Amino acid sequence: MFLCGLLLTTGGCATLGWYGQAARGQMELLLKRKDIEKLIASPDTPEDRRRKLELVLAVREFAGDELGLPDNGSYSGFVKLERDAVVYNVIAAPEFSVAAKTWCYPLVGCLAYRGYFDRSDAERRAEKLAEQGYDVMVSPVAAYSTLGRFKDPVTSPMLKYGEVRLAGLLFHELAHQRVFVKGETDFNEAYATTVEREGVRRWLRHLDRQAAIEAWEESRRIESAFTSLLLRARADLEALYSRDIPPERMRREKQAVFQALQRRHAEFVRKSGDDRFDAWMQQELNNAHLALLATYEAGTDAFGHLLAEYDGDFERFHQAVERLAAAGRETRADFLNQCRTSTVTHRFRNNQSPPDVPGQGTARRQWPIPWQALQRRPGASGGLPSGEPLSGHLRRCAGLKWGLPFRRQRVLHLTAQRLAGCFEIYGSRY
Question: Cβ-count burial of 101 within 10 angstroms (0-12 exposed, 13-18 middle, 19+ buried)?
Fold first, then answer.
């Protein structure tokens, strides 16, 4: 069963046909892998590829030295592929649900996609699922991680990315090698996305490229605005699918939701002047396109605040995440939910006063606050203005700073009227 063990991180051995294609695909990567340093030194390497490969080595070094990420040989090799992606993921959701179908594998647990190294295999699988009544999509993927079990290579599809996106991708995949919790995609992706974004920011600062930082932040702002359109459509679909109405009527109203999304996108393009998402929107959209929308974003603020709690020290941050990974699922869920989008977080995005609680006066109000706020200097940006009343609580995550066992969770209270931060929740991954 050595080959099966080899492929556990790409999907497991659920069926003989799937196992066969996965074995061939993984072996192709292992056999075609070439040392990047040798390619850089070779006069036969095209100049544009040489520059990208030099960037990869520089990013790897920065990731290990500055971000506390593994230096284990991953992304020190290169594989040239004769296709536009390393893997093609099949994503499926029921006709009347935005919850993705999952496939369960050894070691990594249940994932909301099925990966194929050949696009035609992925499309055949998607067609079979569609025949069973699922909404489906096939998503090309430029990179994936074997979680450090093998020396993952840089692939030719990855080199098509711009420098900033390529650096972010490497930070993201290396983060998966540092911490990964079996079967908890939201936790894993929120953590890796946080590392990716702060890693990019520090990388550009390290290069003294302030203009590039500003351009990247603006791009993220545009992506966040677009994502909010998709999240609204997803929420509308969830509300629709919860209703007890005949299937034919539900299909009509489902189609109306996607038509409304198209109209909102057209207005978005008109106001922003940015049409980067036009090609994506021109697909025949369905539940599968929205099923994983929040996977990379839900909980990123919680990790961002945890990093701030450690003054941006990545090693201490990773150690805290490792303690979370060793804790129970309920603890991790509470941690992710502490800053998740809600009516409260939307209303107070711009540091408005917290809401009144029934049965209490306006002088003292109760609502959950992020743990890092308890440790910031009064009046500091993103912290707590001094002298303003607010009572709040934070359960389960209080022991992270000291590495306490989670059975010794504490309930902390603090007073302040305004709480900055913890409000901008969703960005995007496109």
Answer: buried
Cα distance between residue 224 and residue 221, in whole Å: 5
Cα(82)–Cα(128) distance, rounded to whole angstroms?
26
Q: For the range 186-192, what are the long-range contacts, defined as Cβ-Cβ under 8 Å and sequence gap of 24 or more?
A: 186/294, 186/295, 186/298, 186/299, 186/336, 187/299, 187/324, 187/325, 187/332, 187/336, 189/295, 189/296, 190/296, 190/297, 190/298, 190/299, 190/300, 190/302, 190/303, 190/336, 191/303, 191/321
Measured distance CA(204)–CA(207) in Å, rounded: 5
Q: What letter does residue 105 receive in the DSSP assignment?
A: E
DSSP structure class, residue 94: -
**CA dist., res. 221 & res. 241, Å (int):** 30
Strand positions, DSSP E, 125-192:
135-141, 154-155
Q: Output 172-175 pairs: Cβ under 8 A, ≥24 positions apart.
A: 172/196, 173/74, 173/75, 173/143, 173/144, 173/145, 174/60, 174/63, 174/67, 174/69, 174/70, 174/74, 174/75, 174/145, 175/69
**pLDDT, tens digit, 9 for 90 and up, residues 118-167:** 999 999 999 999 999 999 999 999 887 888 778 899 999 999 999 999 99
Rounded to the nearest 5 degrees, what angle is found at the Cα of 238, between the Cα atoms of 232 and 244? 140
Distance in angstroms between the alpha carbons of the first and the last residue of the chain = 37
